[in-house]
Structures are given as structure tokens and as C-alpha cells.
Write a structure and sequence with these properties.
heterodimer, A: about 100 residues, Alpha-Beta Plaits, two-stranded antiparallel ribbon, about 15% helix, elongated, B: about 375 residues, Rossmann fold, six-stranded mixed beta sheet, 16 strands, about 20% strand, globular, binds iron/sulfur cluster
């Protein structure tokens, strides 16, 4: 169901979106060209990827990295670049390596 | 108490009294002394402002945007190329409805590079969404810096406000200025309560989101409502100030001997001072001439302009910048204001004072004399230009 779009008088001043965690309502991962693939066996849980991800897309549970949030990950590759043990591979979206995951 | 000071010092004094939380500023002639005075106040502990010594004006305005979104009261100042560098972010500040008050020490845009006054910088920011006020003297630059704060922070406005003062003519010349006592200035400006301050971590919000074709148009319409809210806010803030400080400020415009004038000049900035002298001299000769000074330039006071000028026979609009390929920007606005009036003056457009070229009372006298019979279809005319 398409949401009814608001008229200009109903929008907050300055285009501010009040309230927290609003990006969760908006999936923005669709234009990713490359997908980071996490190799759990290699991972040493240093959380460098979580620290550096510019899009807050490294998922964490009980202080442990649990994978990527593909609804928001933009495929920038920063996590793969920073990982000290090469536990993250960047693969083209739509490729066979992607499909396996 | 009346004091002598430069326009720089007058603006810096107003800023000291406002004492914003953050000033992010980069020095540029002829604005530098405003930044220098303020840096001294910070260094000497006279103000508690966080002075952000940025590496460019682009960063200055960016820091202002960040600090204002965080909930701070912020100010800056610039000129010419500095404003050109700020403009990208100034559009964003206006769209985010951030009340950033800034002095613009009007200086010609390069090239050729020049450091002296004209209004090409103010015209560059004309469509940015900021409120723009022009001042005639150091006193007005001081007064309108305080008034601007009230306008910028009004709940219906929340926009950047540019206070224009002519570079060198006003910034560097020493004039008599009567500042308010600190407590009265602070009382007039009042406290600021920001919308959705980012530092209020209990009430998080997203600032500057992406807007696609489904919302961009509505958001820009909302921004237009902000600048449309300015006229009554400007009048009320100016009225309160005029009463407090005992100044004769009234209206968006200052008409001078205009009631029965047959010919009139329209100007902005310090040239209004010379024009008043010229009008007086010609009046003494029995010539029915007058002047209209524009204080509020954005939003443009169309109705007030038309009301003030409709009865005049011939009007010369003076633009201190070229708008290449068309008429001067002020002329085009004045012409639009008069378009639908049944009785309207013959309009002429004069370009003057580019790059700090002096415009003398004698030249203005000549304009007021020659416009009696001049052909309005001549297009642009130039004051004090060598052929
Ligand atoms: S590819 Fe970029 S956006 Fe995606 S998880 Fe890695 S760092 Fe974050
Ligand atoms: S940077 Fe590499 S090793 Fe460290 S947590 Fe992320 S995936 Fe694991």
C-alpha cells in the first residue's frame, strides 16, 4: 500500500526528520555494486570493521560481529580494507559468490 | 553613549553583545577586522564564544550549520570571494532553516581581482534563501546586526540573515556610533531556543536528509513560507529596537523627500548618504527630487516599493553591480513591483560604483537632471564610466 504523501504544510521546518533510528524505515542498500562477504572462520572479532563502517551496517550482537546489514550496506569496501585478517571479501552484486550467501 | 568607531568595530560590538555560542570565521578584506576584533574578545575572555578558526569560508559556513543544528546561536562574517565560497552551504543553511546572522562587508567579486566595494557579492547570494538587509552607516550596521538576530531566530522565520555594509566606505571609515548598553542589547536580543537541537540526545532527529522528487518541491515551498514570514517580523523587531534605542527606523524602505517628488533615485547602502545631500541641494534650487533607500532587500518589499514610487514621474534605479546580459537586479525587482500599477513612473537603470569607483554628489546631481528628459529605452546607463 502506497503511503499518502504529505503536503508542504505538514512537513517539519527545515526538512528535519524528528525521532531516532528513522533510517531503519528506509532501505537504502539497493544501489550497492559490490557486496562484502564475511568469512566467520577467519574473523578474530576485533570489530575494526564495525568501527569504520560509514553506514553503520556491521551488525553486532553481544559485542560480537554477526554479519552485514545488506538493507543499508552501500558496498564501499571500507570494512574489507580495514580487516586485519582479510576476513571480508568484496564480490560483485548478482555474481555466483553472492548467491551462495 | 556616543563613540567614534569604524563599521568593523560597530559590527564586532554588536556581536560581542549578542555573544553567540559559536563564531566560525575566515578573514578576508574588507571584513578581516570584524574577525580580528572578535578573536580579541575571545582571547581576552570578554566573551565565552567558541571561535572556530576554519581554513576557508566554505568551512566557516559548514561549521555554522553544524553548530546551529546542534542548537547553538552562531554568527559569521565575510566578503566577496569568501561569500562566493560560502554560497554552496548558505543555500543549505537556509533550507535547514538555521538562523545564522552574518555581516557581509560588500566587495566586488573577482575578476579582475579587486578589494573595494560593490554589491556583486550580495547579488550572488540573492536567491540563496537568506534574508538580506542593506545599511547606510556604521550606526545602521550595528543596529541591524542586533535586529537581524531577532528576525533570524523568530519561530516563523529561522533563516540566515545577511547584514550588508559597504566595504571600506563603512567598514574602515570612522563614524559616530551610539551603541546600546550591554544589558539593553542583550535584553533586546533575548534567548534562543533551537528547533530539534542535535545535542538533545534524548530527542534524536535527522538533519539534512535526502529528498527525492516526491518531497523536494514541498520542502522548498515550506522554505518559501519562512522567508514570506519575514516582513511582519522585520517590522516588529525594527519597531521594538527603534523605541528602545530612539532611532527613526520605520518600514522596509527609507523615503527621503519623496512625497511630492517628480524624479527620484532608488539606492541601497552607503550611497544613500551622498544621494540625500544631492537631493537637498537640488531641492534648494526648486527641483522636485527625492530618494528611496531600500533597507530590506530579501524578501523584496514589492508592495511598499510600488506604494512609495507610483506617484513619481521618473525613477532612476541605481545598481552597484552588473547582472550580465540583463538589467541590474534591483532595477528588475523595482520594475516587477510597479508592473501592475496603473499609474507608474518611467524607469531607468544606472550602474554605478563598480569595484569601489567613487560616486560623487555631482554625478548624482547630473543623473537627477538628465533623467528629466532621458530616453527610458536606452537600456543600461553608467555613472562615472570613461567611454
Ligand atoms: S561495504 Fe561499506 S557499507 Fe558495507 S558493511 Fe562494509 S564498510 Fe559498511
Ligand atoms: S575487521 Fe575483520 S576480523 Fe575484525 S571483526 Fe571485522 S571481519 Fe572480523
Amino acid at each position: 500500500m502506497a503511503a499518502k504523501l504529505k503536503g508542504w504544510k505538514d512537513l517539519p521546518m527545515g526538512g528535519v526528520v524528528p525521532g531516532g533510528a528513522t533510517p531503519e524505515l528506509n532501505k537504502t542498500g539497493s544501489w550497492r555494486a559490490e557486496r562484502p562477504i564475511w568469512n566467520e572462520e577467519k574473523c578474530i572479532q576485533c570489530l575494526q570493521c564495525w568501527l569504520h563502517c560509514p553506514d553503520d551496517s556491521i551488525m553486532i550482537k553481544e559485542q560480537k560481529m554477526t554479519g552485514m546489514d545488506y538493507d543499508h550496506c552501500k558496498g564501499c569496501g571500507v570494512c574489507a580494507g580495514i580487516c586485519p585478517v582479510d576476513a571480508i571479501d568484496m564480490v560483485p552484486e548478482g555474481s555466483a559468490a553472492c548467491a551462495r550467501r | 553613549m556616543r563613540k567614534t568607531m569604524t563599521g568593523h568595530k560597530a559590527v564586532a560590538e554588536a556581536m560581542r553583545q549578542i555573544e553567540p555560542h559559536v563564531v566560525a570565521v575566515y578573514p578576508i578584506t574588507p571584513q578581516s577586522e570584524i574577525a580580528e576584533y572578535y578573536a580579541e574578545y575571545v582571547h581576552d575572555g570578554i566573551v565565552r564564544t567558541e571561535l572556530v578558526a576554519v581554513e576557508s569560508e566554505h568551512s566557516a559556513m559548514s561549521a555554522c550549520v553544524g553548530a546551529a543544528a546542534a542548537g547553538a546561536r552562531v554568527m559569521t562574517a565575510t566578503a566577496s570571494q569568501g561569500l562566493a565560497l560560502m554560497v554552496e552551504i548558505l543555500y543549505i543553511a537556509a533550507s535547514m532553516r538555521l538562523p545564522i546572522v552574518m555581516a557581509l562587508a560588500n566587495r566586488a567579486l573577482s575578476g579582475p581581482i579587486n578589494i573595494h566595494c560593490d554589491h556583486s557579492d550580495a547579488y550572488l547570494a540573492r536567491d540563496a534563501g537568506a534574508v538580506q538587509i542593506f545599511t547606510e552607516s556604521a550606526q545602521e550596521a550595528y543596529d541591524y546586526t542586533l535586529i537581524a538576530q531577532r528576525i533570524a531566530e523568530h519561530k516563523d522565520v529561522r533563516l540566515p540573515v545577511i547584514v550588508n555594509l559597504d566595504g571600506f566606505t563603512l567598514t574602515h571609515s570612522v563614524q559616530v556610533v551610539e551603541p546600546l548598553e550591554d544589558a539593553r542589547a542583550k535584553g533586546y536580543v533575548g534567548d534562543f531556543s533551537p528547533n530539534y537541537p542535535l545535542l538533545d540526545v534524548d530527542h534524536p532527529s535527522t538533519w539534512g536528509p535526502f529528498a527525492m522528487p516526491d518531497y523536494y518541491f514541498e520542502l522548498k515551498r515550506g522554505q518559501q513560507a519562512g522567508i514570506e514570514a519575514v516582513p511582519p517580523v522585520f517590522l516588529a523587531a525594527q519597531k521594538d529596537y527603534a523605541e528602545l534605542a530612539g532611532r527613526p527606523y520605520e518600514g522596509f524602505l527609507e523615503p527621503y523627500r519623496l512625497e511630492d517628488a517628480e524624479r527620484a533615485l532608488v539606492v541601497m547602502g552607503s550611497t544613500a548618504g551622498s544621494a540625500k545631500e544631492t537631493v537637498d541641494a537640488l531641492r534648494a534650487d526648486g527641483e522636485k527630487v527625492g530618494l528611496l533607500k531600500v533597507r530590506l532587500y530579501r524578501p523584496f518589499p514589492y508592495t511598499a516599493i510600488a506604494d512609495a514610487l507610483a506617484h513619481v514621474d521618473r525613477v532612476a534605479v541605481l545598481d552597484r553591480a552588473l547582472s550580465f546580459g540583463t538589467y541590474g537586479a534591483l532595477y528588475s525587482d523595482v520594475a516587477t513591483a510597479l508592473l501592475h500599477r496603473e499609474r507608474k513612473p518611467i524607469l531607468m537603470n544606472y550602474i554605478y560604483g563598480l569595484g569601489g569607483r567613487d560616486t560623487t554628489p555631482q554625478q548624482l546631481d547630473q543623473v537627477l537632471r538628465e533623467m528629466k528628459s532621458g530616453d527610458p529605452d536606452q537600456g543600461l546607463r553608467y555613472i562615472g564610466l570613461r567611454e
